[in-house]
Amino acid sequence: MTVPEAIERSVRTALISTDRGFREMVKDVFLSHEGWTTPSLDIAVPFEVFGDDQVRALRQLNPELVVLDVEEAPDLGIKFAQFLSESAPGIRYIAAGPLLQPEHMLTAMRAGVVDYLPKPVTGEAMRASLDRVRVALGHGGKEGAGPKQPGKLYAFYSAKGGAGTTTTATNFAVVLHRVTGKKTLLVDLDLELGEIALLLGVQPRFNFVDMVQNFHRMDAELLASYIERHSCGVHLLSAPYQPDKAEVVTWEEIRRILQFLRKHYDYVVVDTPKSFSPPTLAAIEQADLAFIVTNVDLASLRNLQRGLPLLKKMLGRGDDHIRLVVNRYHSDNDITLDDVAQTLGMPVFRTLSNDYEGVSRSITTGKPIVLNGTSKFSHDMKALGAQVAGLGGKKAGPGRLRALSAPLGRLFRRGKGSEETPK
């Protein structure tokens, strides 16, 4: 995550914890982290014996941030945060403690907890949390300012599973963020079997469906609690782990959330399901550009040929906002890029080299392959991201032009009684 520039003034902070090691770590982080000073109030009293003196000291300080250790009594600690927030609604909390169930986490967020850190907490995790809180409190900095205009939304779709759409969308988002330095969000709209969290090696606490269920009270501060942050700087709004949760989401809900996200990010990159489901329809309808990812094989091209008319209808803008990307491309394939263009009625925008081993290894390690500069696939992805961001890059060339012994159009008609087979 990009650390915002120095804030205009220090944040009034209180620390509440009976854990000596945790308190020392927090103080060390505050002292060493740019733009922060040691908490003005340090309370080492258990919640069970909190009295008027402690409450009076907190109210006199009127803190903007409270670092709250709830390890010994999570329920009581969260109730205490709710109690303070009723008299001072502007207080924000970084809470630390044991892993909480989702319903308890939601209660904590309603009390003003903008970040929850499972213990033991490292100094690195605390520093990252302070950066997120600084955004929520609105203390200057590029990260918290948000784009002046609604961000660009890029949707990735494939008419056939296994085309590498998720890998392409994930690495594209990483490239966009790295080449522009702008706020970039990945949204996994494959709500049944989304895998972006796996590709990034993160374990999301919340997901898109959780956001739908709480969207009626969503703002920038609560949004930060639903977002996971990868070390490369890209943010993630994950798909749910349980497939049955996808059934509760409607097209209109997705559409409204995507519009909301565009107000808070410069780039929103959406991975869609491989079907014309509500998530796909909503994402493509909202997209500034829809990237159609395909492999050069008959099954992929046939599915895409059948689905393109509906995609164009959803966009309502003809072909101008559709970009065709050929993944796992080999220049010596029997089906050339010219054949693809003629069959689908649109040019190939970009090709991505086949690097099966490198991509598989990146998924296993949870490190997007574009962070490895030696891969041909990485080189192609960086060129794609730079071109879309307006930073250069040329479109894919026509490749080696060789006519098929049997035109694709005839091959696609094999199902109507033809005995022709590819040669």
Layout of secondary structure:
Layout: E1 13-16, H1 20-32, E2 41-43, H2 52-61, E3 65-69, H3 74-87, E4 92-97, H4 102-110, E5 113-118, H5 123-137, H6 142-145, E6 152-157, H7 165-180, E7 184-188, H8 196-200, H9 208-213, H10 220-226, E8 228-229, E9 235-237, H11 251-262, E10 267-271, H12 278-286, E11 289-294, H13 298-315, E12 322-329, H14 337-344, E13 348-353, H15 356-365, H16 376-388, H17 408-412
Parallel strand pairs: 1-2, 1-3, 3-4, 4-5, 6-10, 6-11, 7-9, 7-10, 11-12, 12-13
Antiparallel strand pairs: 8-9
Helix pairs in contact: 1-5, 3-4, 7-16, 11-12
Structural write-up:
With 423 residues, the protein is of the alpha/beta class. It folds into two domains: 13-145, Rossmann fold; 152-413, 3-Layer(aba) Sandwich (Rossmann fold). The chain is built from 17 helices and 13 strands. It has helices spanning 20-32, 52-61, 74-87, 102-110, 123-137, 142-145, 165-180, 196-200, 208-213, 220-226, 251-262, 278-286, 298-315, 337-344, 356-365, 376-388, 408-412, and strands at residues 13-16, 41-43, 65-69, 92-97, 113-118, 152-157, 184-188, 228-229, 235-237, 267-271, 289-294, 322-329, 348-353. The strands form two sheets. It has an eight-stranded mixed beta sheet, with helices on both faces. The longest helix is centred in the last third of the chain and has 18 residues, at 298-315. The N and C termini lie far apart (51 Å). Residues 1-8, 139-147 and 396-423 have low confidence and may be disordered.
